[in-house]
Write a structure and sequence with these properties.
Number of helices: 6
Radius of gyration: 17 Å
Number of strands: 7
Oligomer: single chain
Order of helices and strands: EHEHEHEHEHEHE
Structural class: alpha/beta
CATH superfamily: NAD(P)-binding Rossmann-like Domain
């Protein structure tokens, strides 16, 4: 049975991607900071998918030790790592000159360092099997600056650089690397914003394009996925 590892899988885009892979018969491992969120998702999924296909693990991915513990749990349960989706992330708006002290460090820990450490921990298994696909969640904010992007934008540019270097290193290993750059997508980040739900994308849209990219032949790799609301960025 093929396996997918997805961080930030209890809500938004991560949850939609996890559900897509579960619906296709994959075993899926997710993690989150709160057991309550994990329990809620597991209770929901067990109504639709086989219990043995669902692995949940409590981890704060801002802490390197907990990232590594999650990786070891996954390696203990999965014989192969077919898909890795580095999706965990936080968004705080701000201006570089005035945002709170420490905001860059906090966002880098979650948005960038978690992906770096988890990928490094799982790569030996992927190299050993000579296959796999890594999806790194960036953003349209990692392609160009925008108002109040601040430290968040820096982390998403960093994710683009991470993917570029990783892709170069792994191109002869049979392992694909794709950057995902969504625009405004229905998630907790947009709750209370007063935006018309029809003006932003559904998380399922992103999940569907990830699944389509994953299913290309071994000869093709979609390097960067850019997906925006039909009417453009907000």
């Amino acid at each position: 049975m093929p396996n997918a590892v997805i961080t930030g899988g209890t809500q938004g885009i991560g949850k939609a991607i996890a559900e897509r892979f579960l619906s296709e018969g994959y075993s899926v491992a997710i993690c989150a900071r709160t057991q309550k969120d994990l329990n809620a998702v597991q209770d929901e999924w067990e109504r639709y998918y086989a219990d043995e296909n669902i692995i949940t693990y409590k981890a704060d991915l801002s802490k390197k030790e907990e990232v590594k513990a999650f990786a070891q749990h996954v390696l203990h349960r999965f014989k192969t790592i077919d898909v890795l989706v580095n999706n965990a992330g936080l968004f705080y708006p701000g201006l570089l000159a005035t945002e709170p002290e420490g905001q860059l460090e906090k966002l880098m820990e979650i948005n960038m360092y978690s992906a770096y450490h988890l990928t490094r921990a799982l790569l030996p298994k992927m190299k050993e099997q000579g296959s796999g696909h890594i999806f790194n969640m960036s953003s349209v904010a990692g392609l160009k600056a925008y108002p109040n992007g601040g430290a968040y934008g820096i982390t998403k540019y960093a994710m683009m650089g991470f993917s570029e270097n990783l892709r170069y290193e792994l191109k002869d290993e049979g392992i694909k690397v794709s950057s995902i750059c969504p625009g405004a997508t229905n998630s907790r980040s947009w709750e209370g914003a007063g935006i018309d739900p029809d003006r932003i994308m559904d998380a399922k849209d992103v999940a569907d394009i990830v699944w389509a990219s994953y299913n290309l032949s071994s000869k093709a790799d979609v390097e960067t996925i850019v997906i925006r609301p039909q009417k453009g960025d907000l």
